[in-house]
Design a protein that fits this description.
four-stranded antiparallel beta sheet, single chain, 177 residues, Tetrahydropterin Synthase, Chain A, 51% helix, alpha+beta, 2 domains, 4 strands
Length: 177
Amino acid sequence: MATAPKASAKVVPLDDAAKAAPKSTKKLMIIALAAVVLAAGGGGAAWFFMKGSDHAEAEEAKPAKAAKQQPGKPPVFVPMEPFTVNLQSEGIDQYLQVTVTMQVADDTQVELIKQYMPLVRSRILMLLASKKASELNTTEGKEKLQEEIVEAVSKPFTKKGDPLDVSAVLFTSFVIQ
């Protein structure tokens, strides 16, 4: 009788099989742990940058001086008559025509501005007439002028008076000729 050839099966001793299983499990655990750490780090970085950009955009969106209004209360605006001034000479005569609207805290501030309108207009005219066209041609120059107008108009009109609460100055027309 002939015996059939036996299939060659490799028999691994139990000790070697037991050693191989934990080694592959360790690799799998290390890979899984690395993936979790990377995902958490990526999520944290995304959150940080998203919050940082929201904060930066919010800062850019604020007017020159933060409005001191309560939430839900509509803004109060005071439109002014146009200003026309001669700008400081840079070799040729140049003029500025600008229309300004001021944002204030409440109707009390509107009444104060109306009461002191000649002084308000005088302060703004003097400030505008001290500028050169080259200072006002850029966006930065216009933003600086807005801040300077807020500062000039906010000063008290009497020695012991309260400062006006002007939160922003908005240009509704701006022409240099």
